[in-house]
Amino acid sequence: MRSYKIAIIGAGPSGYFAAQALQNLQSDELSFTIDMIERLPTPWGLVRSGVAPDHPKIKTVSKVFEKIATTTGFNLYGNIELGRDISIEVLKEKYDAVVLATGSALGKKLGIAGEDLPGSISAAEFVPWYNGHPDAVTLTPNLDCETAVVIGAGNVAMDVARMLALEPSELDATDTAIHAIDALRNSKIRKVVISARRGPEFAAFTSPELRDLPKLEHTNVLMQPADIAAALDRAGAEPEKEVRNNLEAMRLISELEQGKHERTMEFQFLCTPKEFRGDGKVEEVVFTTSSGEEKVIKTGLIITAIGYEADPLTGIPYEKGKVLNSDGYVSENLYVVGWAKRGPSGVIGTNKSDAADVMNLLLSNMKEPKPAVELATLVASDKVITQSHWESINAAEIAAGEPHGKPRIKAVSREELLRLGGL
Ligand code: NAP
Prior knowledge:
This protein is of the alpha/beta class. It has two domains: about 1-105 and about 310-385, NAD(P)-binding Rossmann-like Domain (Rossmann fold, 3-Layer(aba) Sandwich), CATH 3.40.50.720; about 110-305, 3-Layer(bba) Sandwich (FAD/NAD(P)-binding domain), CATH 3.50.50. The protein is built from 14 helices and 19 strands. The site of NADP nicotinamide-adenine-dinucleotide phosphate (NAP) has 27 residues, from α6.
């Protein structure tokens, strides 16, 4: 019987799917002890801090994560920060293999004038804010203006725009952070412009998300029929399936009856952001249109949702916002999965097959197992969140939400999370 010790760094979807892949490889001759190390006192990564709270179905994958976590040989070690509580070198030395599943936490920058003015933020800050991520609670997005502009034509831009354009009472039955619901309830924003630099045929939205938009009960969703007709022309007779489905969903949106509601989400295409302007804060955004003209929108809040890159860890090689790797292999006994490996693309399920491929590679490179290791003896912290601590936090949050008809009320500070965990 060979028994290997694997450290997985990061308790998001790609980390759990890597653990599941290892569990699936086990046999009478092969077993794994999996220690999952997480910086936050809570696991689930983007399923807790990224997925839009008005899309609860996507979060049901957390049931799969909990099944993985309660399988023999799996240990959660939350509230442990790499570099502070333990080093990557020690992990590489003590474990048979180390798997990075640290995602892409930083928002990409446009690199244009005015981008750093107050009032300009990244989805990488705004999304964790409304989802109650402990590092984002102090954000104060300017909701004191009539129009907000979201830059980018992907699903994150759409999530952000929806959260800004929803009637706030629609968030009552969700696990949106209470501070965000309160702020959104007082929001003066009534129009949210989603701005794409290319035409509708190149938008990165996926069609299920587009098809959900007409179901919004209190928000007008505006697309110009001429924009969609021109895109259909450009796409030709036989566009790829995704493009065809997207354009069909957009055509239906463009034909919606307009102006019924107080709140509006409006799509503009073929507008490249040129400059954010304002006196000490964002007051307007300037775009260049496809015909080379300037288009100016007055706004006090611009959210860029143009993709992510990895937040570099000391001692790990990075290139173009990802860990430098070859099919998930980094060096020696170090591997990488998920967005840290591929970049920020794909849905949660994409990580399953991706992690399975990397774990097969990991197994094929394995040599003699190293001696057993006890992570608790290696870390310089007495506030480690184990699976049972997390289960206490989880149960407390769910119980707090129950009388309010919410799936949970999230604790948003590290101190409160540790307290709920019994530490
Ligand atoms: P994304 O899908 O890659 O979209 C990024 C958008 O930003 C693209 O429209 C891109 O336009 C635009 N962009 C990039 N650089 C730009 C620039 N300099 N100026 C203007 N626009 C720029 O990324 P994402 O929205 O962050 O989503 C990440 C992944 O998570 C995606 O795979 C997404 O589907 C997934 N996700 C899924 C869901 C869901 O299933 N409900 C929800 C959220 C996220 P170009 O195409 O012109 O480069």
